[in-house]
Amino acid sequence: MMFDRVKPLSAIMATAEKKGLRRSLGAFQLTMLGIGAVIGTGIFVLTAEAAQKAGPGMMLSFVIAGFVCAVAALCYAELAAMVPVAGSAYTYTYAVMGELLAWMVGWALILEYAVGASAVAVGWSGYFVGLMRSSLGIDVPLWLSVGPSQGGLINLPAVVIAALVTGLLIIGTTESARVNAILVAVKVAALTLFIALTLPMLKGANFHPFIPNGWGTVGVVGAASSIFFAYVGFDAVSTAAEETVNPQRNVPIGLIGSLLICTVFYLLVAAGAIGTIGAQPVRGVMGQILAPGTPELAQRCVAIVASGAAQPLTCSHEALAHVLRSIGYTHFGNLIGVAAFLALPSVVLMMMYGQTRIFFVMARDGLLPRRLASVHPRWRTPHVVTAFTGLVVICMAAFLPVGKLADYSNSGTLFAFAMVAVSVLVLRRKDPARRRPFRAPALYIVAPLAIAGCAILYAKLPLIAILVLPIWGAVGLLVYFGYGRPRSYVARGIVDVEEDAPPIHGVQT
Q: Three-state SS for 289?
């Protein structure tokens, strides 16, 4: 009876109504939330990572990753419209597949949000260091700006920004929808500027060879597995469903609209970066392929620059700013750096905020200690779980490179997306009569494509990233059977939230 504990949809909806959050977000705000959560380190930094794996073929990588996210988004949209509550994939799985798989999804989402926040913090660090050098002439020492795998000791700027965001979340500084919209505008304006300056300077020769490393793990599909991180965040729209006006209409618009807008931007930005300075992978002295984030690649990049040659795109920690500076637009490159400097911390905040939401909902179901969702008496924020999440984010950001963090995050995200696709299929069979304000078109084609796409991208991740998910899952199972399963509210016959369950405050999206 491993899969017998299913939380009824009616109980989930009743919980949301009793202890739900104020509904204030519309379609435009949700789309801005989705764009704000999606556009971040993926496009500002991982462009270099994708170029090292796929070269100019990274444009195909963006298409592949975007397609997998699109079919997953359609599944998300159907479930989010039916079950407009907090918890995202965790809640949907609980309602359809049962408590055990829901726990595993919630546990995997920790990889998406906490590890993802670390990756964004490291990406921000690269732009901060570049901005300090280009604008102020200050060189941050290598040992203080990157982790051990890249020749440094600790990534101090990433630690500082992660600590500051943690402090803001604990104190309860509100990120309003208006502030978020302004930050989204900054990022969109920066990418628009980049596109406008680079597209007129495209050189066809820079696109050849188009697929230098083939289609494998260190190739186009492998780059898609990494660049998938550039799309992560659109599911934050479904996490905000409990705070949305007319969620049946607005959540699907926010999910699909934000994804489409980001995909167009990504393709144009990739074309601009490739066409202006080239994006061929850096190879070893014997012509061998070098994997991103390795000491060998870092040493090769240092040797290339020391020889007097221009720094290749794949060696840059601030890819888009580097492109503009390389083609003579130094001031505009600095502006791109300023935009990333200002906007990326909001992505760290949103990811850490999403993590506290998942913890909160799991604690609300009795699967985690309720004190994790305890509220600070003065600031009225879930300070315990926020501090714990912040500590984890800080430790990972301090020592790991952005590419590896993105791959680890992707492993958890791909599992969660696949489970959403499975859930919507199962629910169509189990409860066909339930009202569906939004129905995913051609579901029996779309959902299997989402499942297969997630499985293929997961299989093309680096081996360590592939192993992270089962190892992390094994730890999660120990926690579940040792603590969560015997204390589950569903197991105790409590299918609705207790009257005194703590609310969560502090950040409004």
A: strand
CATH code of the domain containing 98: 1.20.1740.10
Residue 472 in contact with residue 111, Cβ under 8 Å?
yes
3-state helix, strand, coil in the chain (%, to 5): 70, 0, 30
For residue 13, name the pLDDT band (cuts at 50, 70, 90): low
Asked if residue 201 belongs to a domain, the reply is: yes
Helices (H), 366-509: 383-399, 402-430, 443-459, 463-479, 485-487
* Two tokens, residue 26: 């519309």
Which of 310-314's residues contact partners 24+ apart within 8 Å by CB, and which partners? 310/277, 312/278, 312/280, 312/282, 313/47, 313/48, 313/51, 313/273, 313/277, 313/278, 313/279, 314/48, 314/49, 314/51, 314/52, 314/279, 314/280, 314/281, 314/282
Listed in sequence order, the residues at least 6 apart from 122 whose beta carbon sits closer than 8 Å to its beta carbon are: 41, 45, 155, 158, 397, 400, 401, 402, 405
Q: By residue range, what is the domain housing residue 394?
A: 23-485
State pLDDT tens for residues 166-214: 888 888 655 555 666 677 788 889 999 999 999 999 998 999 899 998 8
499 in a structural domain: no
- Cβ proximity of 180 and 33 under 8 Å: yes
Q: Count up the domains in the chain and report the number.
A: 1
Three-state SS letters, 425-442:
HHHHHHCCCCCCCCCCCC
Biggest alpha carbon–alpha carbon distance for the chain: 70
Q: What is the pTM assigned to this prediction?
A: 0.83
Q: How far apart are CA 466 and CA 453, in angstroms?
A: 15
CA–CA separation, 89 vs 101, rounded Å?
11
Residue type for position 82: M
Tell me, yes or no, whether 502 lies in a domain: no
**Residue 240, amino acid:** A
46 within some domain: yes
